[in-house]
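Bump. Still looking for Glycine dehydrogenase (decarboxylating) structure tokens.
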Amino acid sequence: MTAHRIPLSELESGIPFEQRHIGPDGGAQAKMLAHVGYGSLDELTAAAVPDTIKSVEALRLPAGRTEAAVLAELRDLADRNQVLAPMIGLGYYGTFTPPVILRNVMENPAWYTAYTPYQPEISQGRLEALLNFQTVVADLTGLPTSGASLLDEGTAAAEAMSLARRVGKVKQGVFLVDADCFPQTIAVIQTRAEPTGVEVVVADLTDGIPDEVAERGVFGVLLQYPGASGAVRDLKPVIERAHELGAIVTVSADLLALTLLTSPGELGADIAVGTTQRFGVPMAFGGPHAGYMAVREKFARSLPGRLVGVSVDADGNKAYRLALQTREQHIRREKATSNICTAQVLLAVMAGMYAVYHGPDGLAQIARRTHRYAAILAEGLRAGGVEVVHGGYFDTVTVRVPGRAAEVAAAARAAGVNLWERDADLLGVSCDETTGREQLAAVWSAFGVTGDIEALDAAAPDALPAGLLREDTYLAHPVFHQHRSETAMLRYLRRLSDRDYALDRGMIPLGSCTMKLNATTEMEPVTWPEFAGLHPFAPAEQAEGYLTLIHQLEDQLAEVTGYDKVSIQPNAGSQGELAGLLAVRAYHRANGDTQRTVCLIPSSAHGTNAASAVMAGMKVVVVKTRDDGDVDVEDLHAKIDQHRAELAVLMVTYPSTHGVFEENITDICATVHEAGGQVYVDGANLNALVGLAKPGKFGADVSHLNLHKTFCIPHGGGGPGVGPVAVRAHLAPYLPNHPLQPTAGPATGVGPISAAPWGSAGILPISWAYVRLMGGGGLRRATQVAVLGANYVAKRLEPHYPVLYTGPNGLVAHECIIDLRPLTKETGVSVDDIAKRLIDYGFHAPTMSFPVAGTLMIEPTESEDLAELDRFCEAMIAIRREVDKVGSGQWPVEDNPLRNAPHTAASLGGEWNRPYSRDEAVFPAGVSAADKYWPPVRRIDGAFGDRNLVCSCPPLDEYDA
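Sorry for the wait, here they are.
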């Protein structure tokens, strides 16, 4: 028998990556299509997608490449970056990520493929890790309540401004910012303040609050500790004076410095904010990093973002959960004071574990070493006749060299070190965990001096003010003392990850959240030092590879969406929304239409839409939604007529939040444009459009995209995310920009949305690689299979649960909503009962009660293969049979496997007096004992946790109570 000859060209092409990314193969797709009633993917999508929005041309993207080829391209881009010693400072520092944390958290899919812990019973590991993070922040800042991370230091400070305005006694007046705050923080605050009418005053507060400012009224004050210049000064007098004026005081503090310095809480601060980047999280050209906020106890219930608390489960055991979930401001919609709806969970876990691994003594040692290098550096400069500006500092030395700053900075770069060139006369030099003797020698050489490190070490005194040395203890909880060896740390990380349910374990069918494959090839370059080690304010010529990748990705996203320009600066979807609305606002103002402030939003829209509109200084007017889930066009016309002269923008999600392709979207866009408004299409559901339709071509003016949904950046347990904003040409002049990197945006832009010029640049290689691997054709097929998967699930479940909304030809888009309300009314079984029972079957629940209470929204994505889709459908069908047993009276409403779910391994022991068997409890239909996922706790009592708020590591004796 002669072997079949295959041409070399075919063999060289390798296996297309889309076959690795898309779960159902050709045979499975054929079976699914047959079940749905169509002969091909093209036939299905032709029936599902309205003709009015379809793209007629293929995506103008290169063909997909193999994993090896794409990694080689990324390696070439990485090699075009120059990673110099990062002595710029300004809130970004070199740090050493312990390999046990790098490998077992950052590079571990058990951590990076998890979702926001809205189902706490299957998120106990993540929640414990976040509680550790909160404890670190609370202990080091000296304030009792810390959140579970914010986006970065700049946005955390902006959130503190809003919080101060909300909870303080002074309702008018200005927000006063010390001139020694980081410049990017000041800029973000100014961006956020202007649309809401807050006046920001920047002043030198070294000698106190100026009388002329105090006379105007001050509702809040922001101080930097240590200052951007490196200066460490006693903030108590300024804080006391601010309190006399009725102001709320925020201190933006360096956590590493706080291991040695008196805490902001002890100094009298009401709020502390900052970043945890230098706790083992690479700079990554600006992010992602976990920002933090801690507050006095009386402000705990006003914190923006998330708070992990301690509650109890059904057996009375301690259990963790997101406390006070309504504090996620987007739930308040137009009454919101923040649009925060995500966090930087993966990075917060890393920072918290860095503290767990090093403990208080190890952190203090790192801080002392960092400070010692700074002190020796300064002593060497002084010995050489160079002026060191401040006598008290932690890690940053400001040096005066009249007229020579550029020359010295250039000499330092030539020697492999980046400095902060403040102006023609001043330079900033920052030491960090990675600073070594060779960096000191290079800096001295750049200044034209030499130094003997050993001699200078003997001569140089410490430069921390004696009156500000920390005297209290911190991180006393056992978790910060038990994991010093790598063995212990490795097992702790494994123990926590085993308690969780992530995408590496099984399907997470969350509607509107698009939990798809985050391929290892896409993830691998993120930790390469050429990408991870670059400072965000390094000169642009040192970031050639990064900037090439960024601009290519922006162009790719513009092609996919049909827009003209994209900015990737926003580091969350909510921030992309804000950036888009600020662009619309600026456009109207540039045209003299300052009265255009009304934002129309359908009642079914994501809550962040309304929250972002409020933050952009707009008035929200809600448009009704029809019974079939579509926008009520009649009510839309009425609202447009009512607000025609004031109409700024319509925000609409497409496909709709109800999971259908609305057929009248182009008419809606045209109607808004005719009235002088702009159209914002929320990109949360873009996974149903890529390759099939382009919002920028069917009538939209602006969208934000969720790279952590459609373009494969991992959710990481609730973060990181990236929310690029895409606009048509007339809005491009109003995209975000940045004061420290002129090339990051247009000079006419609205200011920075994020602290770093290109936001969370460190994870952009993921999405770049995804697009490059898939190519235009692969992206289109991924969308088609996502639509196929959703319709397959809908058709399989329809005989058992009503599908609430359908679009053209009775089809759904990329997700479907099943209605449990009739079952609840008939049997008493709630949506919570079904969601928790799915845990016993080995699944994460779909999205609960959004956008309609009492429903489940299911999104299978293209990554799940047919076997997993069938396993999920069979579990849902089996649960329906269990519901029928409750309805028939075979099982009591208050004592059945659904109401008591989830069941833990402990359920197998002890007495059993349930009306159903142990096997029915823990091994329901189709669940294998060998592959069983065991939840660590039973159903958690949310109300108990909200009444008894515990948001840092409780003493161990509480666990015995």
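The longest helix spans residues 345-383.

Edit: fixed formatting.
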